[in-house]
Design goal:
Elements (H helix, E strand, L loop, with lengths): L1 H13 L11 E7 L4 E10 L2 E10 L2 H14 L4 H6 L2 H8 L5 H19 L2
Antiparallel strand pairs: 1-2, 2-3
Helix pairs in contact: 1-2, 2-5, 4-5
Length: 120
């Protein structure tokens, strides 16, 4: 089963669906200094709901695939729901066990989104 999830991660890394920038949206930048991953998340939020969200940046396959999948999940979510999300939910999305260092990569997108929301 892990092979299937690894393939999904590789596919999302090579062909991200949500790469880009939301024009006129809020944004935040965050980096994982331990491995060099860097993300910029931009989103359009209206009435406490994320209407559109995209990312730019670079990094390992886990961080890029995780943020791409996260963007899918965030569309239509209420800000309060997003702020309650945990790293465990990211791991469930990815569908495979991650080492401690890979968890930091996978969580980077969620941390960046929360930083963006907190900056409102």
């Amino acid at each position: 089963m892990d092979d299937l999830y690894r393939q999904i991660i590789i596919d999302r890394y090579k062909n991200p669906i949500n790469r880009g920038k939301v024009i006129g949206g809020k944004n935040a930048v965050k980096a994982n200094l331990s491995c060099g991953d860097k993300l910029e998340i931009s989103a359009k939020i209206k009435n406490e709901i994320i209407e559109e969200v995209k990312f730019e940046g670079g990094g390992c396959a886990v961080s890029m695939a995780a943020v791409d999948m996260l963007c899918d999940k965030l569309k239509g979510m209420k800000i309060g729901e997003v702020m309650k999300m945990s790293g465990e939910e990211i791991e469930e999305m990815i569908g495979m066990d991650l080492t401690y260092s890979r968890k930091k990569c996978a969580y980077l997108g969620l941390e960046t989104v929360k930083k963006m929301i907190e900056s409102e």
